Amino acid sequence: MGPAEILPLPVVLMTVLITAYAFLLKPLGFIPTSFLFLVIGIRILTRRNWGWTVMVSAFSILLIWVIFRLIFSVLMPAGIVPEAEILAFFRKLMA
């Protein structure tokens, strides 16, 4: 039994990806880190085309962000994204 049979490549790659996510979450913030995590993870696990992968990732991150940040008011690491301006824009739309 070789190493590839014990730990298949997708398992190793996802483990590295999860570790990178943990280290990048605070400096980059929730939105870019999660987007990169989903794009790379979907490509590793499903081998779908880039367009589908990017669209599913973007929609998923937007939905998660709206539910947890806007509806439940959960604080997430902002990082490089100007979250205050985004929140002000949404609040202006709802006012």
Set out the fold topology.
Elements: H1 3-6, H2 9-28, H3 30-46, H4 50-71, H5 83-94
Keywords: Membrane, Transmembrane, Transmembrane helix
Domain DUF1468: 10-77
Protein name: DUF1468 domain-containing protein
Description:
- The chain is mainly alpha-helical and 95 residues long.
- It has one domain.
- Helices cover 79% and strands 0% of the residues.
- α2 runs antiparallel to α3.
- The longest helix is centred in the middle third of the chain and has 22 residues.
- It is elongated and about 65 Å long.
- The N and C termini lie far apart (63 Å).
- The mean pLDDT is 92.
- It holds the Pfam family TctB.
- Keywords: Membrane, Transmembrane, Transmembrane helix.
- This is DUF1468 domain-containing protein.
- InterPro entries: DUF1468.
Give the class from helix and strand content and strand pairing: mainly alpha
Mind describing the biggest β-sheet?
none
Shape: elongated
Number of domains: 1
Number of beta-strand segments: 0
Helical percent range?
A: over 70%
Secondary-structure element series: HHHHH
Query: Helical segment tally?
Result: 5
How far from one another are the termini? 63 Å
Please state the CA-atom Rg, rounded to the nearest Å.
16 Å
Give the uncertain stretches in residue-range form: none
Averaged pLDDT, please? 92
What is the beta-strand fraction?
A: under 5%
